[in-house]
Write a structure and sequence with these properties.
about 210 residues; Pnp Oxidase, Chain A; 7-stranded antiparallel beta sheet; binds flavin mononucleotide
Length: about 210
């Protein structure tokens, strides 16, 4: 079949939007931010990834709240305090991560809501999840408006440079982060998730060590 996402209604046999299932697995950026008034915020974003390694650059894409063009708290916050943290969601934190996705009013602290520790960061003002085994501290480099449809919800891409990295040494083996120990949760299509628990190695033809 062929599907043009600009055309409604979605053709049979598709009952749901397939895009999330086709660009999967997606890592989850668990984004900690701070408002100008000093309110902390935490929310998961699976439109999240790394885009460059040196310097490390990551990005995530908040869409608008259901009311058109009303920014999610995370976007409103990075516009006021241009810094954020990315806490890695290990398997044991999956439920807490989901809890922090509740659409609560701005100013409600999702760290507290989910019973998580808002641990102080070193190079940025927003806190991170103290229970996370790995965390990136980021400064905002750019906020880009993404294409939107007439009457549709506005989405933005927030790009950040990583200026600090926390790693719990329990997940480091022989100088490498062992993903079988970190066990990051990734988002698939629909309401499905996956945990990294098996790996295979494939040397590069050019001998690059990766
Ligand atoms: C696993 C997961 C991934 C999500 N990914 C995104 C995303 O990429 N973009 C987005 O706008 N919302 C995403 N959401 C929904 C937001 O987390 C949710 O709207 C949240 O309330 C936003 O919080 P804020 O208003 O405090 O920023 C995701 C939710 C979950 C559970």
């Amino acid at each position: 079949m062929f599907y043009d996402p600009r055309i409604d209604p979605r053709p049979a046999p598709l009952q749901f939007n397939p895009v999330n299932a086709l660009v999967a697995p997606r890592p989850i950026g668990w984004i900690g931010t701070l408002s100008a008034a000093g309110e902390t915020n935490l929310a998961p974003f699976s439109y999240f990834n790394a885009f460059s390694a040196d310097p490390p650059v990551v990005g995530f894409a908040p869409n608008a709240k259901v009311a058109p063009d009303q920014a999610k708290d995370t976007l409103a916050n990075v516009r006021e305090v241009a810094e954020f943290t990315v806490s890695v969601v290990s398997a044991e934190l999956a439920q807490a991560m989901n809890e922090t996705s509740r659409p609560v009013p701005r100013g409600v602290d999702e760290f507290a809501l989910a019973g998580l520790t808002a641990a102080p960061s070193r190079h940025v003002r927003p806190p991170h999840v103290g229970e996370a085994k790995a965390v990136l501290e980021c400064t905002v480099a750019q906020v880009i408006a993404l294409p939107s449809r007439p009457g549709g919800r506005a989405s933005h891409l927030v790009i950040g440079e990583v200026v600090g990295i926390h790693i719990d040494e329990s997940v480091i083996r022989e100088g490498r982060v062992d993903l079988r120990l970190l066990r990051p949760v990734s988002r698939l299509g629909y309401l499905d998730y996956s945990i990294v628990d098996s790996l295979f190695e494939m040397p590069r033809p050019d001998g690059d060590g990766g």
